[in-house]
Amino acid sequence: MTAEPDTGHPRLRPGVAVTPLREGLHLRGRGTSLTLEGSRALPALWEVLSARLAGDPAATTDPGRPGTGAGAGAGAAGAGSPEAAAGRPDPTAGHPKLEAALATVTARLREHDLLVDRFDGAEPPPWPGSVAERPGDAVAAIAAAHPVVVAADPEDGTALAVARALTRGGAAPTVRADASLPVGQVLVVAGEPPVAVGLRCDADGGFVTAPAGPARTRADLAALTERLRPDSERGHGGPAPRTLPLLLAAATAQRLLCAVAGLPDPGDPADNPRLLPGRPAVLVADTRPLRSEHHPWAAGPGPVASPPEDLEAALRRVTALGDPRLGVFDAPSPGDLPQLPTALVTCRTPDGLLVAGATRTDLARLTGAVRALELQLAAVDPEAAGAAGAAPRVTIGAGPAHALGRALRRAALAAATATADPRAATSVEAAPGVRWREHPQARHWTTALARRLGHEAAVTVRRLAGSAVLATVEGSRAVEATEADAVAVAALGALTRLAACDLDPARDPDPDPDPASVHHTAFNGAAAPLAAAGRHLADWVDEGWTGRWLAGLADREADLRAALHDLTGLRTTPWLPRTTAAHRLADALAGCGFTVLVPEGDPR
């Protein structure tokens, strides 16, 4: 809450609407609302307060008069109307209980940013008075900005629409020609140091860039035009709606004036969980139907992000990476797939359909995302795929720990394959044969698999080294810290493979299809620390509950990594992109806090 300056007089923000309730009030402003309840006197109290906020502390209406007076749905205009301010002096002015009640309501209004301070006696303008903490300063900054609207044709209708929108916002723009800008693009520059916003408008839609320096905005215009061109070239036919240039012009003016006046950008991630801090938010408009929406541009310019702190944050970044308009891959989605016994998601990849499975849909989304991103990376850097039939050389994770856990498991599985001959596996010990059956997760997933197969699942377990156990369940393998963990994860993998076979359009009618022909991936314990982060479970929750099991996997992850490192000797280093397409993908991953690892000494 901002302290009220001594020299300012509080006013209700422009655009705030007030609705009296039977025993309270409801106020609505831009992005905020407040409901006060608990007393039939509140509507009458609002009569007194609205008169004071209108600028005449001595004026009021009769508190006992029925009706809604200044608050009756009239919003800020009603609160400041002459009817509210006119009347005889308030006989209750200075009454301690009344003043205390007014002070309480005023404090609540200020907490919810529904008040603004007036310093010069002038009414705050509708905009930026509805959003600015100090509207007078914002108005002065806008008036001093002198925006310059640049287009290939200064008489272009879109450029003129931007200029009109800037004028309505309180600026004094000029329009200039710049032959270097392609037709359909408009660049607006203002302020010192200069800030710019660009737009593109064509027959099938358009976009508005995030505020940035002029040079970067020009580069963003070119990159976004290229990125969105496949969408616009689909062509819906017919002319664009006449309102499209007006929509884009208004959005451009608003973003520029907010930047000049120090106001929150309309594409601020704080107001939209789909957007990403540190990465540009681009307003993309479509024509049929006419609509606009801010989209995260994960591959846009910006700093390297810190790794996601938990699963929710990781999935927010997966959503940005898979944005349908500006993303770098097709984000996994459950669609209409069954979610029992395993949670399933699918997505398109350069290698075809990918099916991912896990204990929960959120974990399946992350599992599918990192594998799909690896396949996407392999498409732009073929060496990242590895040899045919071998594990990928590149491992992607939602942060260094997640990526390292996935890479170590792959290395351990590769090593176990290399020593599968009993004569070569002299260092492998046999693990206890039945202890895993006592664990609820291992029992649940092997039972679910047996139901799916119609017979008991074939399970083999062996200890690789220390806190590392390899389980094989119906051909699916997993390496985890305990026998039960490994069996449960391997059974999940087997169920996922069977589900992928069901979805494979080229699947052979043979009831036992070749698993290698089906593209799938399954959850493993490397993602457990993200899933368990910030979770607090009751003491009575045991590992029969997925949340507790994930917490246990997370607790055992560090020891497992140490054991796998000793077993495999794997050392990793960050992957370095070489091609332009690989650089774009690498920038997007870095901007979302994702990590890409390759074995140390890899020529890439």
Overview of this protein structure:
- Helices cover 38% and strands 19% of the residues.
- With 604 residues, the chain is of the alpha+beta class.
- A seven-stranded mixed β-sheet has the order 7-6-8-9-10-11-12, with helices on both faces.
- A hairpin with a 2-residue loop joins strand 17 (459-465) and strand 18 (468-473).
- The two termini are 52 Å apart.
Describe this structure in a few short sentences.
The chain is built from 17 helices and 22 strands.
Provide key terms for this protein.
604 residues; 4-stranded antiparallel β-sheet; 7-stranded mixed β-sheet; alpha+beta; disordered N terminus
Largest sheet: 7 strands, mixed
Count of DSSP E strands? 22
List low-confidence stretches. 1-7, 57-88, 232-237, 421-432, 508-517
Beta-strand residue fraction:
15-25%
Layout of secondary structure:
Elements: E1 9-12, E2 17-21, E3 24-29, E4 32-37, H1 42-53, H2 75-79, H3 82-85, H4 96-111, E5 115-118, H5 126-129, H6 135-145, E6 148-151, H7 157-168, E7 174-177, E8 185-190, E9 195-202, E10 205-208, H8 214-232, H9 243-261, E11 281-287, E12 290-296, H10 311-321, E13 343-349, E14 352-358, H11 361-380, E15 395-397, H12 400-418, E16 429-430, H13 440-453, E17 459-465, E18 468-473, E19 476-480, H14 483-503, E20 520-522, H15 528-532, H16 546-568, E21 572-574, H17 580-591, E22 595-599
Parallel strand pairs: 6-7, 14-20
Antiparallel strand pairs: 1-5, 2-3, 3-4, 6-8, 8-9, 9-10, 10-11, 11-12, 13-14, 15-22, 16-17, 17-18, 18-19, 21-22
